[in-house]
Amino acid sequence: MSKIAVVAIGGNSLIKDKDHQTVPDQYQAVAKTCSHIAGMVEAGYEVVITHGNGPQVGFILRRVELSCHVLHAVPLDSCGADTQGAIGYHIQRALGNEFRTRGIDKQVVTVVTQVVVDADDPAFQHPSKPIGPFYDKEKALRCQREEGWEMIEDAGRGYRRVVASPAPQEIVEIESINTLIQKGYVVVSVGGGGIPVVRDEQGRLTGAAAVIDKDYASSLLGAAIGAELLLISTSVDHVYVNFGRPDQKIISHMTIREAEAFLKEDQFAPGSMEPKIKAAIQFLQKGGGQVIITSPERIVEAIRGKAGTRITAR
Predict the structure, then answer these.
(1) Do domains 15-115+172-195 and 230-314 have the same CATH topology?
(2) CATH topology of domain 15-115+172-195
(3) Catalytic residue among 129, 192, 222, 271
(4) Active-site residue 97, yes or no?
């Protein structure tokens, strides 16, 4: 069987800029990314696709706030389920169209995926996961004051709302995902990090008010399905140290030990590159072959060793 690769698409990379946030705009961004993922399939990989949903969940919650006087609220776990369906549909349509254009005999299927988290995870007391659009400082302070939102500055790009982000423990639908992979389907799963659920003593599941980081969930998924490659697609071509400073430097390759050293130096922004590096380390420690971090446009070059940042165990 071909090598398995988990491709994690960032939720922000599905939005080109603040002037291109509509659903058709997001579909066009998905279609562009899928054209590059199709190149991986042509190169012989069995691909499993995951995606972020921070901006999209933020849009749903904003609609809820604006319509609360006439419509019911939507719980955060249901927001995650909604985005899994919508973004999964876009990926299925775009990648399916790309396959037909290229003459690739593959089908794409989305699995609405639940991911178990610990109800006692301290993350519930310390919200940290950015969702929704970027705001300037004045608007962020107003949202904090009027809406009661927790707000943080996000990697120099503006201010965003943050919610609880507990660590993923278990993928509920993992057997179904494995079966689909073995039958040759391209699978879209753990969208937005998965729908967060907690399990009680009887094994029953209940939705949790949180958003799981999609990179950590993708790492967990990759290890669970025996993936050779975890490819994290983001808004930059490479990982940098001293990012945004005059002495910033591209890192083309790093080992786990080097990555851990950079983390200790606070080289990577929380909520941005930091979770990607930590997820990469977790994947490699669980037996994964390698991790590549790059932009969607450089995916095919990256798997050929000509672009992106490669992270390996040694």
Answers:
(1) yes
(2) Carbamate kinase (3.40.1160)
(3) 129
(4) no
Query: Are the C-beta atoms of residues 314 and 281 closer than 8 Å to each other?
Result: no
Please determine, for residue 1, whether its predicted confidence score (pLDDT) is greater than 70: no
Rg (CA), the chain: 19
Distance CA 6, CA 288 (A): 11
- CATH of the structural domain 230-314, one choice from 3.40.1160.10, 3.40.449.10, 3.40.50.1700, 3.10.129.10: 3.40.1160.10
DSSP letters, 267-278, are -S-TTTHHHHHH
- Tens digits of residue pLDDT in 104-137: 999 999 999 999 999 999 999 988 887 777 888 9
From 12, 132, 222, 308, active-site residue: 12
Q: Which residue among 222, 276, 288, 308 is the active-site one?
A: 276
User: Reduced to 3 states, what is the DSSP secondary structure of residue 166?
Assistant: coil
Give the amino acid at 128: S
Catalytic option among 10, 53, 191, 214: 214
Known catalytic membership, residue 12: yes
276 annotated active-site: yes
pLDDT digits (tens, 9 = 90+) for 75-90: 999 999 999 999 999 9
Residues 140 and 159 sit within 8 Å (Cβ to Cβ):
yes
What one-character-per-residue DSSP string does 231-248 give? EEE-SSSSEEESTTSTT-
Catalytic residue, chosen from 11, 52, 222, 271, is: 11
129 is catalytic: yes
33, burial (CB in 10 Å: exposed 0-12, middle 13-18, buried 19+): buried
State the Cα–Cα distance between residues 295 and 272, nearest whole angstrom: 14
